Amino acid sequence: MKKFLKIGLIAALFFTATGVHANDDDFTLKVKGEKEKFIRFSADKAEDLNLSLVGADDEVLFEESIHASATTSKVYDLNALPDGKYVLKVESESKLAKYNVVIENGEAIVSEPKIANVFKPVYTKTDDLVTLSLNNLDKSPIEVKVYNEYNDEVYAESFKDKAQLTKKFNISKTDSRSLTFVVKFKDESFVKTIETY
Fold this sequence. Notes:
Blueprint: H1 2-12, E1 15-17, E2 27-31, E3 38-43, E4 47-54, E5 60-68, E6 72-77, E7 84-91, E8 95-104, E9 107-110, E10 116-119, E11 122-126, E12 129-135, E13 142-148, E14 153-159, E15 164-170, E16 178-185, E17 188-195
Antiparallel strand pairs: 1-6, 2-3, 3-6, 4-5, 4-7, 7-8, 8-9, 8-10, 11-12, 12-15, 13-14, 13-16, 16-17
């Protein structure tokens, strides 16, 4: 029954492309109209995005990869969802935003502002040097761990009171074919595997 309900919800979460919508943020989420269970998602620049709706117990109810070639706006129909609290996550290459979506009495209510707006770690590999950069404007604690391909921890460090973290890793002496970087901050975990040669 639960599997049938999940499939039904996924089928019901159709989208239709609508008109162009520009704004000051990279992406926005708004209720289409009062007393409705439709929400409009808008992105104002060309980029690859991953959009997912998460229900109770962190169960992913719907997930979509969007390749926005220009300003994009889509409408999502949430009429098949029962009353309750949901989280909509929108993730780009450099950013993660979360919105609370509450469905109650036949309407959807979206949190304003976003409940999380996290800049993701950025990695740059130049020859034998990997540079990790991270904007952390509220100076949240940051934990960085690096694992080799056998899942052995080869580096671990915690940082506090850093608004901007830049950490360089010299990989010239490693015999690992790949290194996996795990960065945890603001209750999120970001994982990136980099081939060393």
